[in-house]
Records
---
Amino acid sequence: MTTINQGKSIRVFSPATVSNVGSGFDIMGFAIEGAGDILEMELRNDSRLNVENLTGAALPEKIEDNVIYPVIKALQKELGVDIGMNIRFRKKINPGSGLGSSAASSVAVAYGFNKLLGSPLIKKELIDYAREGEKLASGSAHADNIAPCMLGGFVIIRSYHPLDIIEIPYPETLYCSIVFPDISIDTKKGRSVLNKSNSLKDTITQTGNAAGLVAGLMMNDYELIGRSMVDVIAEPRRKDMIPGFDNIRKAALNKNSLGCNISGSGPSVFALSTDKTTATEIKEAMVMAVMETGHKCQSWVSPISKNGVCEI
Ligand code: HSE
């Protein structure tokens, strides 16, 4: 049931996410630790949405261009409420990083608004509303960042029509190394370079690898995970947008990474490995490879985070 309690506030953390995971274009993603958005929200006594940017990258000037706008509008309609919020962004994942920036903001407001209204919807139900933000940002309502950001863990989108979200187990010790070179790739642009249709051969290769990746994760089979992290659909058409991508991957594989791919539509690149020490060595090697291109980068080492968006 929806309960309106004007002035009620909440502080929410929503994690960065790695989507596609090589062979799972638009259908796989996982949450990471240590990077994400923090949003503070407060119910107003009128229907206005007021956004304040306290730190981090700039927000769109017009509220209608902010990913949070269609998410809140969709929830207001669904819940039959006309109440607005004051929203303060405290820390943001850079837009165009490939780490689920628009998903993190969309998920944070969906979760926060719902919670402030007495949690009439459960997290899984909120995914569809949060997708409205992704649709505004990229023209496509893909859920492979939204779903892991909401739920945490490793998530598969088995179907979009209807939405069918599967959370799967994965090895506890699986670690991820990430580099984010200092360029920005708009997801719209990242999607515009893709073929509208793919050959039967590529479809079979991609499906085989996606199935292998899921099996590897569920059977704790690291070698199978590694040899399944192959993307023949998006990565070949996107990698030239990332300076030194082949060398970054080579550096990761030389340090015993299981596999290395573009995170989302890039420019971030991630590699998986079996433990934290290896993941740290991989990260350092990937950072060196980025620096050789003359670019700076941010970098992270993280397990797959069990936690999705949460109140803090
Ligand atoms: N699956 C999406 C893509 C993720 O690769 O375009 C980026 O948001």
Note: The first helix runs from residue 68 to 79.
---
Amino acid sequence: MQTKLKLYNSKNRALETFDPLNPPFVGLYVCGPTVYSEVHVGNVRTFNSFDLIYRYLLHLGYKVRYVRNITDVGHLLDDTAEDRISKKARLENIEPMEVVQRYTVDFHQTMEQFNALPPSIEPTATGHLIEQIELVQTIIDKGFGYESNGSVYFDVAAYNNHHNYGELSGRNVDDLLSNTRDLDGQSDKRHPADFALWKNAEPQHIMKWNSPWGMGFPGWHLECSVMSTKYLGKQFDIHGGGMDLKFPHHECEIAQNKAGYDEEPVKYWLHTNMLTFNGKKMAKSEGTGVTPREMLTGDHPLLTQAYSAMTIRFFMLQAHYRSTLDFSNEALQAAEKGLKRLMVALNSLEDLAVSETSTLDVSDMHEKLYAAMNDDFNSPIAIAHLFEAVKWINLIADGKETISASDKEAFTKLLNDFVVEVLGLKNESNNDGADKIDGLVQFALELRQQAKLDKNYAMSDSIRDRLKEIGFEIKDGKDGSTYTSL
Ligand code: AMP
Ligand code: ZN
């Protein structure tokens, strides 16, 4: 019997049975990156965690609409009033949209390397300005927002008379001081906890649009309220993001939705934990923000070697998404070995001999794997069971256990479903074809060696010349021939 999926709803701080609002459809919204620089592997962990969740929901047969936005305006730097993208554009003397394009493309390439599935819709904040302006107006009209010197703020006190600001993060309104990300124009606010819905743009500000309140730009939290509602409805199933976004970002999103649309927007809030370095959140500002490119080349002072994208993905999957994961070369090296063991075993499955009967209980393995994933997407437990399956494969290969033909078929499907479809791991060595090309060239060199031994020099020269035409330079040495790719 299969257990039902349970997930940890961080709004209620409880494990809950997953009952989508409108099955088999599932609406999933995840806060995407601010595209002002390369992502670091900490960011990648968050997106990989949601990729696992998305993949498992798809695997269970849900028709998931996965919306993940691109923040291309409105995300201000913590210590200044400057937009992150504008700042990069100013420093590099390029258009803000060039910054956005460069890092959006880079982000897509990165996530593809990690074998993360693309979302169903990837809307941008700048593509939804009309809708954002409309929501600001609605919030003002309903008495939960006010204009002040060309900016519009959300009136937390007015909202709190009807609702509970702080319901997600557990914060108390009275305790909330000036810890919002928008520090300029603070004196325009009625209350320090009020947050910007729309910001007046100074003349030198590059990214600005016309609005009923003058030239300005949207507050950071607004885009997610607007785009989740537009594509998933006023109420949808799952909203996710890193834990660091719970406050103020997600708290503000809930307030905007309730104020503007009179609905509790999200049924299940999922928050993923941080990738840390020596126990501290990995961050660019700390010098610990290792980028995927640096990981793949090994070119960073924190790295003792290069790691492949699948090793990094596997390393991340070995921790539960709600636990912190500490970055270390030792853990990555262990993941590299573990992944190899898993993939070698998986590839050897088809060669296993079958017997009349099975001495192993494949249906029990089936139960255990689903039970692990149904328990709030517990990938480390699922991986522990997969390693037990690796032991089984080796025991069968050694003739110490047996498997029937039908069990072998079920076992092969089960392991492939989990390793490839749910965990999203792929065989890297076969993927780029490099191993196969190397094998072919080595084979040609062996034929040439044989031709030489047979004193068929015309043939050995012809093989060398053909390889050169194709793009391989052959060097003959004492210990045989080697080649370089031209
Ligand atoms: P940002 O582009 O800063 O908005 O961040 C994009 C996503 O990465 C957010 O969901 C953050 O919660 C997440 N994030 C940032 N730093 C880390 C980290 N060290 N570990 C895991 N996730 C992170
Ligand atoms: Zn968001």
Note: The first helix runs from residue 41 to 59.
